[in-house]
Amino acid sequence: MKNIALKVTGAIFLLVALLHLLRVIFSIEVIVAGFTAPIWLSIFGFIFALALALWMFKEAKK
Question: End-to-end distance of the chain based on CA atoms, in angstroms?
């Protein structure tokens, strides 16, 4: 059961990483409560989410 939970979590983080990458590639503007999120924030989000996804998949293999 633990492996399934780790794989699902890894897939969710991978999806988030993909969405951040698509935002960077297509320069999609994101406005939250009147604040425009800069593109560099999605670059950081992509790296962070990808690292978490890889970590979850690695832990699922153990």
Answer: 13
